[in-house]
Amino acid sequence: MTMAHRGRMGDARMDLDTPLAPATASRPGTAGPTARLAGFAAGLRYAAIDEAARQAARRHLIDTLGAMIAGAGQEATTSGRNAMRAAGVGAGMVPVPGLGECYDALSAAWLGGTSAHGLELDDGHRPGSVHPGAVVVPASVSLAFLRHSTGEELLTAIVAGYEACCRIAAASHPRARWRGFHNTGTAGVFGAAVAGASLMRMDAAAVENAIGTAASYAAGLFTFLGGGDVKRTHPGHAAREGLMAALLTEAGLPAPRGALEMKEGFFHAYAGGDTGAFDGAAIDLMSAGGHHPDSLLAVANCYIKPYACCRHIHPGIDAVLAILREEGMTAEAVERVEIGTYAIAATHGAVGWSEMTTAQMSFPFVIATALRAGRVSLADFSAAHRADPETLALAGRVSVVVDPGCEADYPSKRSAHVTVTTRDGRRLHRYVPEPFGGARNRLSDDGISAKFLDLAAPVLGAAAAEAVLGRLWRIDQVDDVAPILEAAALAGGGGRSV
């Protein structure tokens, strides 16, 4: 008998306005946060999801698939494909958006997650400083293809996965970040596990079991600030291992209960229970950071990136672009740029730009790019641009410090004060409390479509990309998502096996 009990619980929707029991709530008869999160995921049904969250799930599915398609050809994804060939694994029947070959579901999830994160175009959740889409969507679509899931089942799994990933990340952030962990890899694995469990229709006990297994697979360090491409693989690892945790549960592997809050569990290990300051697992902390007027669900309160770089830099970009636009200023007029922001963002002021990976994390380089190009696009991180003498000279005049007000507001706000001093002595200041693309300042549906086509059309062809996009906006009406996912992967190979 497997552990993936098919009988769904009754309506177990989580009360989003009431904090979950803290880590000490493992007393007999008291459900801890792991059990409560599992109960929420097991009881979630499409009919119970509010319309704002349903639309958000469609938007984030489209946005992530676009990032996956565009990122499928990047070097980290290619390295992964080559490594799989060398290991003799990977061949299967699951398509990967943007690729012409088919893989086993676990390898497809790894490749999809790596592709989605590879170009710094994937979505995110501010209170948790995490990129849920790059983990949850690849795991979900890989399994949904195999199981011939309906569109409603896929969207429900995405909502459940975002909820788990974002809540767990928000409860441990920023403490986990200061301990050196990358939340997308560490908290993301739970999102993939819960999404997989949702597609398998597991009951609450089985979902908690999947979370218990996933806890042992959480991984990801901020060592990437020193260079290299390993950051791009973090969501791939989390997507694969989270999906594996769900599959292992279905296959009967037992796991510990209460894996989030137990003394040896996730929160104490990653958020620092050894310091004595971590007060437990209030994993619905996320609701305090929700800003969508019609939904408290995590997926409706995530951002979608308008710029191809680290989200911590986006408020600075918004500020300098506003100054360019509103003051009629040019980059040649800039004497210096002073940026005050929260501490985590300020660390990016010391990041160099010798590689594309680090350039997309570098405050000085990105701000100089925005001033010179009036945008921040993928093309602006080429080797030629990273060596451009005028851009480099301007980057040398950008300083980033911690602003006490911005630090006090973080993570409830992701803000920046920017002052540009011109060569003729003017001081032009802008304050951005929250960058473009968030729940309070959303990218429109038309903007989502335009971004998808910009990313997908060069890979799939304009007509094919348009066709896939139209079907994705109506995916909730689909009885089997497999043909849509297959269409997003027919690029230069027609779905050949590796």
From TrEMBL:
Region Disordered: start-end pairs: 1-32
Segments forming domain MmgE/PrpD C-terminal: 307-469
Ranges of residues in domain MmgE/PrpD N-terminal: 36-274
InterPro entries noted in UniProt: MmgE/PrpD_sf, MmgE/PrpD_sf_1, MmgE/PrpD_sf_2, MmgE_PrpD, MmgE_PrpD_C, MmgE_PrpD_N
One GO molecular-function entry: lyase activity
SUPFAM superfamilies the UniProt entry points to: 2-methylcitrate dehydratase PrpD
Pfam hit, one: MmgE_PrpD_N
Top-level division of the source organism's lineage: Bacteria
Transmembrane segments: none
Family: Belongs to the PrpD family.
Protein name as annotated: 2-methylcitrate dehydratase
